Amino acid sequence: MKMHFSTSLAISALLEFAAAATCPASGPPTYPKATENNTAFIPFINKFPDINTTPSLTFTVMTKDLETLKRGPVSIKSAGMDTGSTGVMIGAGVLGFDEKTPFNKSRPGNEYLSSSGRLWQGYWVDANLTFPAKVDERTIGEDVVASVPILIVTEASICKAWKKQGSCTEAQKSNITMYPNDIHYMGVGFGRWSIEQPDALPDKVSLINIASIGGRPVKSTIHQGYVLGKDGVEVGLTSENTEGFCKTQLDVRSGSNSTIDWNMVNMAIKVNDSPYDHGPALFDTGIPQAFLRVNKDVRSHFKNVTSKAIKTHPQVAAKGTVVVVHIPNEKNPIATYNVTAQGAGKPNPATMQPSGFVLEDPPVAPNVPFINTGRMFYNGFDALFDSACGWFGLAELEETSAKRVKRATCPS
Q1: Residues 6+ apart with CB under 8 A from 37
Q2: How far apart are the first and last CA of the chain?
């Protein structure tokens, strides 16, 4: 079947997605009962969480330029799904584009991955992404279409300087590849805007910009958001897939022009017998290690060693160090992350141990304390993101069955 790029889906849908959600003045919303028109399950194509790999999705890409060039949808067999970044990045070469291919270059953009120093530069182009949904008790397995701008990457490089200055000279770049054919990445995180990621805005997140399920427009029926679990992602929040989650409200990012541009979730952290530090938390599917940034009065309560498990051999928390994180605070937490560091060696892959708790320098204003737990966090929790109303939820998993722990009540 020939597929046409729908301008009406890619543009008007982005403006009207919030219409289906009713956000109360206080407290979390009441989610609708699941139907074939408001939710679908998109499976991972690999094991998750896995210390060695990012969870991946498969989908096809269609843009107006591809249609103009009389080309069909491009199949992306595997794209890493990263909650630590925002936006879909596809190498120009993957789409069959080169320096001679005419396509829309009116919206230049970039993506910077600070953990690796990768800099991807190119152009944002409206696209329809089609995901094959899995048959389960909540859906009949029909295709799910998201309408978002994607970054067509025309230049890939390594530039460590970008992290500090938000730009790179040509002399500061290395490993430059033009029109790369090996980039296929999907950032689905929130609260990721920074000078490193100036385009990290909610309109770029595919999983919260669902336009249709099974060919049926869903803007009037879906509550935009997603649930992230071991087997994949459920798009569209319902009373069924949100069961078992305790939730905390998110804040809108200061200075944003969007009413759904949410900050990262708040947390309180202590290490061993230290006092608490407070700041944001990130549960990052894109990396196996954790990053820890705490003030000196907390840092003084634990020792560090040189990692043998991480290739760059950074300083990590020593064996036996206990890291405790309460979401969103220590007084009324919806969930608690409690992990004992394995030190320099390899982690136990059945636990929430990261490949190491990498120690960053104490924060200097405007930076604040912070933890990025890495993806092994998801051995202990499922996560929920309500993009329409601004709520983040966690559901603890049973160690033996990986089923959600039933809680009688949640903190209010």
Answers
A1: 213, 216, 218, 221, 222
A2: 51
Q: How far is CA 187 from the centre of its chain?
A: 5
Element holding 14 (H helix, E strand): helix 7-16
| CA–CA distance, 360 with 236 (Å, rounded to integer) | 36
Q: Determine contact, residues 149/60, Cβ cutoff 8 Å.
A: no
User: What one-character-per-residue DSSP string does 39-64 give?
Assistant: -EEEE-SS-SSBTTB--EEEEEEEEH
Inside any domain, residue 252: no
Q: Which residue blocks in 40-165 are alpha helix, DSSP H?
A: 64-68, 162-165
Q: Looking at the structure, tell me whether residues 231 and 309 fall in a common domain.
A: no
* Sheet of strand 40-43: strand arrangement: 40-43, 232-235, 226-228, 381-386, 391-396, 246-249
Cα angle: 323, vertex 351, 208; to 5 degrees:
85
Residues β-bridged to residue 317: 304
pTM for the model stands at 0.93
Q: Report in angstroms the alpha-carbon separations of 154 from 76, 134, 137, 183, 263.
A: 17, 33, 42, 10, 30
224 lies in the same domain as 276:
no
Q: Which residues contact 328 (CB under 8 A, 6 or more apart)?
A: 248, 265, 266, 267, 268, 334
Q: Distances from the Cα of 360 to the Cαs of 16, 99, 307, 309, 364, in angstroms?
A: 41, 40, 14, 17, 11
**65: which DSSP letter?**
H
Give the residue numbers spanning the domain of 201.
Answer: 7-237
Cβ contacts of 348 within 8 Å, gap of 6 or more: 342
Residue 250, in any domain of the structure: no
- Could you say which residues of the chain have pLDDT below 70? 1-20, 135-141
Query: What is the CB neighbour count within 10 angstroms for residue 163?
Result: 16
Structure tokens at 330: 């220590």
Region for 328 from its dihedrals, namely left if φ exceeds 0, alpha if ψ lies in -120 to 50, beta otherwise: alpha
- For the stretch 61-99, pLDDT in tens is 999 999 999 999 999 999 999 999 999 999 999 999 999
Is 168 in contact with 148 (CB distance < 8 Å)?
no
Q: d(Cα 366, Cα 208) in Å, to the nearest integer?
A: 30
* Other beta carbons within 10 Å of 271: 23
CATH number of domain containing 345: 2.40.70
pLDDT at residue 237, rounded to an integer: 99
